[in-house]
Amino acid sequence: MAKKAVMRQCIGCGQAKEKREMIRIIRTPEGGLELDATGKKNGRGAYVCRSKECLIKAKKTKGIERSFRMVIPEEIYQQLSEELGRLEDR
Question: Phi and psi of 81, rounded to 5°?
Fold first, then answer.
């Protein structure tokens, strides 16, 4: 029996895609946010497509803030954008 594909919804564009096609953003136990390219780190997670456009949409619609129920400073968005840029280049 074939394994069923695990689907997740992007908090930017709202499209459902396979989990491995997306990047997970996690809230660490200390309260910080970081990208989890492996999808295996501990913490509450939300998924975003592997594109800066979706990260920008998630910021505009406050999708990340809603997912984690917290206010997110501009520096965190900058950090996530830079990390995502590095992952896009791979």
Answer: -65, -45
